[in-house]
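During the first year of the project, the team set up a workflow for recording each protein of interest as an amino acid sequence followed immediately by a discrete structure-token representation. This format lets reviewers and collaborators read both layers of information side by side without switching files. As required by the reporting guidelines, we include two representative entries from the current panel. The first entry is reproduced here exactly as it appears in our internal archive.
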Amino acid sequence: MHYRELGRSELTVSEIGYGAWGIGESNWVGATEDESVRALHRAVDLGVNFIDTARGYGESERIVGRVVRERAGSGDEVLVATKVPPKNRVWPAPDGLDPAETFPGAHIRESLETSLRVSGLDHFDVLQFHVWSDEWVGRGDWLETVAELKREGKIRLFGVSINDHEPDNALALVASGAVDTVQVIYNIFDQAPADTLLPACEEHGVGVIVRVALDEGGLTGRITAGATFPEGDFRNRYFRDDRPAQVEQRVSAIVADLGIAPDEIAETALRFVLSSPAVSTVIPGMRTVRNVERNTALSDGRPLTAAQLATLANHRWQRNFYS
């Protein structure tokens, strides 16, 4: 496993982290706690030291906390990031909201205390807001509350999870110096963060946590025309109507242009993200031991070539399947 600096924080994180949304047994159907626990332990065995969860991920915080506490008993330090949901429960954050409606100080503290209790942990290494709007910079009492929680030792770093496909909506926050990390969608299809956000994070020493590197499965080669998912699985919405056929066509074009085998697309997608020096860690969802072993094997110091990256620059695809 290779490791990278998490911005200016002096913390070092595995470049392959663990996205723990899918193990929460909520919006992703099919996870079992036994397999999730095995997958988490296997990830730590293979060098993963960063896990991303959230208050809104069902049972995820509890399961992650269980494993982290078990590993701490063996001397393994695993960094955990969680998220505070907006008080108004609106994702993503629309324009015009006052931060008092989304992240008042009392709500931040209450959510964190619940997360600590559920997880059994005594602190979180990163506390993130689960939505963000740059309209909130310099407004509200959230920044004072974050500073208090740091002084109390309940959190080490503060971050935000940027709204889906809106990377420029955190540029003012990054420049303000108030944030330690940002979490952002960055993948072969959505390359927009590389335009302004990633350079800004490098300039200001802000760590970058990349989510949705595999486009919720779209960049695995397994989403094809007519794909179906279990009842209650959020992918029924994400890949609705003719979207699977669109994805299949786009992935086929990438495979053809790069001259790779179809089953190499997931590896290529993760290597694309890790080819950026601004990226601190990428957090693919890993619900099985098999997924853990496959993804962690890619942390071998081999980025994509300049020629491959130039080819992939032609495969940007501006769309928002979350809407």
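The second entry, processed by the same pipeline in the following quarter, appears below.
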Amino acid sequence: MHEQDWLSARFAEHRSHLHAVAYRMLGTTAEAEDAVQEAWLRVGRADTSAVENLAGWLTTVVARVCLNLLEARRARREDTAGALPPEPDRPRPALRPVVPEDEALLADSVGVALLVVLDTLTPAERLAFVLHDVFAVSFAEIAAILDRTPAATRQLASRARRRVQGAAAASEAGRSPKREIVEAFLAASRAGDFGALLDLLDPDAVALEIRGAHEVAAFFAGRAQGARVALVQGVPAAVWWHRGGPKAVIEFTVRAGKITALAIDTDRRRLAGLDIVVLPVAAR
């Protein structure tokens, strides 16, 4: 068999696995198909005579293509939220470690929630987690793709794993009356629905230096276009994401079904210390 024909046959043999890698990395079927096709073009131009583990090598090629696409995607992202003023500081709680038996469950059963969380990771964190925890690629191999040390790559995967662990818990922890109120508030804010905002706010509601339901509703009407519901320190809140990180967090105080206070934090150093898990849109 001609070498190119042999290579084509081996690529076809591994194609479903390569597509699975690309899909977990990129989050859409169309982008995964594009990545696999680009990988095939690269494979066709490469010298494979010294390759001993073809499956592992093909996985690496697809991972490099996906990393480039994730970095390009991140560079294109635009900030859709308006600037919001800062507020104060909070500690970060310790999380229990993920045991190996949990990893396949996290990878395969979280579904949409997992993909939402993966989209908030940096490209390097996403690659490290997907390749190691989902596809059992060694940290040494991943380090070569990222041009980092195995120890640094292990840390990237660990940070990503905490997010995914939170997503697994979020399916239960995120279901609460408070989450429904936060979602309703964000929906009304995006739509500029002043009446709906008033219905959600306590008459004496406070946000920053703004006091009174009418004033708070006027401030937030039309301002939540880029906001998403998240668990912040395990509590439903709202978060603005930009270039893989949180730009602003709004925490809600709710009493008797009404929002009495909104605390807004935009300090990057403080936000980096919070445990934030973005939640998928709740089914209606």
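For the second entry, the following points were noted during internal review. The CA atoms of residues 82 and 223 lie 7 Å apart. The first strand starts at residue 201 and ends at 207. Both points are flagged for discussion at the upcoming steering committee meeting.
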